[in-house]
Amino acid sequence: MNPLQRALLAMLWLALLVGLATVIGSRLQLSGDLRLFMPAPQTADQRLLLGSLGEGPGSRLLLMALSGAAPEILAEHSQALRTAAAELPGLRRVMNGEQDLDAFGDALLPFRYLLSPTLDSQTLDAAFLRAQLQARLQDLGSPAASLVEPWVARDPSLEILRLAERWQPTREPQRLFDVWFTGDGNSALLLVETASAGFDPQGQQAALEALRSAFEFVASDPAVQLEISGPGAFSVLMRERTQGEATLLGVSASVLLLLLLALAYRSLRLPLLGALPLASAALAGLAAVAALFGSVHGITLAFGFTLIGVAQDYPVHLFSHRRPGHSAWRTVGELWPTLAAGAISTCLAYLSFLASGVEGLKQLAVFAIAGLLAAATSTRWLLPALLPMAHRDLADARLGVALHRLLQKTPRPWALAPLLGIVAIAWLMFSPRPLWDDNLARLTPVPSELLQRDAELRAALGAPDVRYLLVLEAADNEALLQASETLEPALDALVQRGVLGGFDLPSRYLPSAATQRERQTRLPNAETLRAHLAEATEGLPFRSAAFAPFLADVEAARSASLLKVEDVLDTPLGARISALLPGNSDTPVALLGLVDVSDPAALRQFADARGDSLHLLDLKAASEALASSYRERVLGALLAAFVVLLVALAALLRSPQRVLRVVTPVVLAGLLTLALLHAGGVAFNLFHLVALILASGLGLDYALFFERAGSDAAEQRRTLHAIVLCVLSTGLVFGLLGTSSIPVLRAIGLSVAMGVFLNFLLAALIAGRGANHARP
Q1: I need a labelling partner for 769 at 20 to 30 A (CA). Which of 43, 319, 475, 724 fits?
Q2: How confident is the model at residue 706 (pLDDT cuts 50, 70, 90)?
Q3: CA–CA separation, 664 vs 417, rounded Å?
Q4: Which residues make beta-bridge pairs with 30?
């Protein structure tokens, strides 16, 4: 091809990539749900664990704090913000301690005597009604008159107020100026329940933006500051930080790689052309994930940028092996068997993640496999067409010659390799430090100070505990509600003993049908109630005829069908009922929210004494057991992948000695990487396994090319030039990743950077052929 044809082909390739990027960008959905990187549940408790992370009693709650001004000013802002937020879409309820009877909901209002415990000890006779009307007279002469007056004719006993108080958090914060405050009085508190699940970043972000806009609208004092915490706020933060850091690291790595390759090849053209297979790899990975999964996790997207250090190796090998008198097509044809072997072997390792049962790791596997195959094939079939004839042979570069001589003189004690492996295995097996870290909370990018502040606000508000739940099992929802009612007195006793600070039961909001039926039978008919009202209003400044709305509601409650769970899901009670009665497990369960658990052992003993129908779920312990069982599955899959890899290498290399020379440095580098990281105090998680596979795939590529070079000194120098550039570029990318504030990305970055260096060193000494050294 002449220069013009090469330029046109490059522009066509670039245009296709831009078009593909536009299509992917318009359709790709980004997810921040960390549950995608958690193993598939194997037990009922594990299914409840994953469900509760996004749907549990505490997952939908946003905790808000107003600070920076005097308490009376903060209280005014709290009341104004609550009023404004009550009208916002995407919010189920907003509470700050101030009573709001209008928030009860018209759909439930006629059922108030079936929901309230009043009729368990009272009857709507003349004496009870007269006492209530006398109390309303006092209320109408008090500062609460404006709140009470609209409801007297319809609800003379203010049953809706009793229910509103019953449905408040089980342990309220202190009140100042009729709203909630922290114990020190420095912050006014609000509790917001969102319609979106805790790990729905889009829904949570919309709720956060609406709340912040409402605050800016009502804030009259610039000194007042708004603070929002909770799982939903953290979900949004995780997505923003992951996406932001991935973009920053990706751009930084691309610029630095461009400079490194331009310096190495004394040309800007080659690095720019080499970026085409790299861009093809990234877009192919994204397209494959979008086609198979519909959305891509932010961590998967961030990991995609790390393919810069892997996919870049393929064009680098081609550039470094070019020499005068050989076309790029001839060079790539000579390299292709080794290059293809490296790509296929790495893809085989990633196939193990497809059997992991973890959606996020499946995405990573699809991204990596599609990206690596796209980079390899585009390097083989497209990139050579863009390259002119080489004018110099990099085998003659002075720095490369000097480095090659150094490696030739380096001693190669073959017996040291198994010894190092044995020492590394012994350290990993007998180290006094824990080898694995199963605490999934440490994977979150949320700063520790924000988590601490969330715990403080949660404690101040009496919000449900995020670690412990009581799980109640029964045949159906009615049996669950009846059992919940039975447990309430016993749980009250535990609160009195100090075992916990409070609890939340589904029967608090929706009594069982049996209880509703009993209360319904205690409601008088219209004629009897009218007679009771006439007697109750004698001598009082009320006309009995004014209570027609009250008579209508009681008659409606007498004849209405009893409320079931499905009847209240679209009411203000819906979010609370659906959180406590999730209905997403094989066996119907109720999740009883707990507050301030101070004695888990006593709580577990309490649950065990009630048989199989009730047990304490420790979400932290369940998550660690889930991670542990998953790790065993992944390690088994990796072992199977290693066996398949050995078979594939044996078929490709057709020599046991060659297979041994290629595999030994990779296995030894992996063991040494794990041993050195563990000696530095690292306890491993599933993302260290991801890093180990990535580093091993790179090391396998290095070993294959070193082994391919044979005893030809010039070919050894070209190979050394290419691999040194690969190591520097990969080390640069993953070194940057190791500076990330996101634990997942930092674990991958540091592990791969160390693994790449060890793989290079060992591959050069073991797989590289030195003319003056005997080989096994």
Answers
A1: 319
A2: very high
A3: 8
A4: 296
Better-scored residue on pLDDT, 636 or 486:
486
Span 465-487, average pLDDT? 90
CB 287 within 8 A of CB 370: yes
Q: What is the DSSP letter of 562?
A: P
pLDDT at 308 over 60: no
Q: What one-character-per-residue DSSP string does 119-152 give?
A: GGT----HHHHHHHHHHHHHHHTSTTHHHHGGGT
- Encoded amino acid at 447, one letter: P
Tokens for 125? 């006779």
pLDDT of 771: 38
521 burial class (0-12, 13-18, 19+ CB within 10 angstroms)? exposed
Q: Quick count: other Cβ atoms within 10 Å of Cβ 559? A: 9
Shortest CA distance to 386 belongs to which of 307, 320, 329, 453?
329
Do the strands 295-297 and 29-31 form a parallel or antiparallel pair, or are they unpaired?
parallel
- For 408-466, what is each residue's pLDDT tens digit? 888 876 778 889 999 999 999 999 989 998 776 666 666 677 778 887 887 787 767 66
Q: What is the pLDDT of residue 774?
A: 36
**pLDDT over 80 at 254, yes or no:** no
Query: Could you tell me which of 368, 248, 348 has the C-alpha nearest to residue 296?
Result: 368
Cα atoms in the 13 Å half-sphere on the side-chain side of 595: 22
The mean of the pLDDT values for the chain is 85
- Of the candidates 733, 730, 679, 735, the one whose C-alpha atom is nearest the C-alpha of residue 701 is 730
Q: What is the mean pLDDT of residues 220-248?
A: 82
Burial environment of residue 433 by CB neighbours within 10 A (0 to 12, 13 to 18, 19 or more) = exposed
Contacts of 637 (CB under 8 A, 6+ apart): 352, 353, 355, 356
Q: What is the DSSP letter of 621?
A: H
Amino acid at residue number 720: L
SS3 state at 63: strand
Q: Provide the 8-state DSSP code for 563.
A: P
What is the 8-class DSSP label of residue 522?
Answer: T
For range 253-269, the mean pLDDT: 87
Q: For residue 776, what pLDDT is reported?
A: 35
| H helix or E strand, kind and range, residue 648 | helix 619-653
b/e map 186-203, b = 16+ CB within 10 Å:
ebbbbbbbbebbbbbbeb
Residue 143: Cβ-neighbour burial (10 angstroms; 0-12, 13-18, 19+): exposed
Among 390, 381, 392, 351, smallest CA distance to 369 is for 351
State the Cα–Cα distance between residues 181 and 457, nearest whole angstrom: 10
Q: What tokens were used for 710?
A: 């044979």
What confidence score (pLDDT) does residue 39 get?
63
Alpha-carbon distance values, 773 to 406, 413, 708, 716, 769 (Å): 14, 10, 17, 14, 8
SS3 228: strand
> Quick one: which of 413, 465, 505, 715 has its CA closest to 597?
465
